[in-house]
Design a protein that fits this description.
Distance between the termini: 17 Å
Helix content: over 70%
Structural class: mainly alpha
Strand content: under 5%
Number of helices: 6
Shape: elongated
CATH architecture: Up-down Bundle
CATH class: Mainly Alpha
Number of strands: 0
Number of domains: 1
CATH topology: Four Helix Bundle (Hemerythrin (Met), subunit A)
Radius of gyration: 14 Å
């Protein structure tokens, strides 16, 4: 198992590795992509929310959702899905709380990935 016991609740590296045909190098590359791109997507989402650009909120949340799905990061995936759904309905009041939850969830995944010794960080 690639994920430590504590990290297993945040993401499932075994599941991701299995879907990648056991290619640990590719798994590390995908983790690096997550760690690098999620903060950029998060910033883009927050800026779009400030501008009231719901279409960009939806696009950014969808991208985060997809990245989280690669690792079965269920809390982050579900939070991104909720933001995406609220963005589609243009519910600014609901989005504020959902985005805060999403930011915490993706931060947790990034921190757990950085702490996972077999990912090399």
């Amino acid at each position: 198992m690639l994920a430590t016991h504590d990290n297993a609740a945040i993401f499932d590296l075994d599941g991701a590795l299995q879907r990648l045909g056991g290619d640990e190098g590719l798994l590390r590359e995908m983790a690096a992509y997550f760690i690098e791109d999620v903060p950029l997507l998060s910033r883009r989402l927050l800026e779009a929310l400030e501008r009231g650009d719901f279409d960009e909120v939806v696009r950014s949340a969808h991208s985060i959702k997809s990245l989280a799905a690669n690792f079965d990061a269920n809390q982050a995936h579900q939070a991104a899905f909720a933001v995406e759904r609220a963005g589609r309905s243009r519910n600014a009041a609901l989005l504020q709380d959902l985005v805060v939850h999403l930011m915490g969830a993706v931060k947790g995944v990034v921190m757990a990935m950085r702490a996972e010794p077999r990912l090399g960080y």
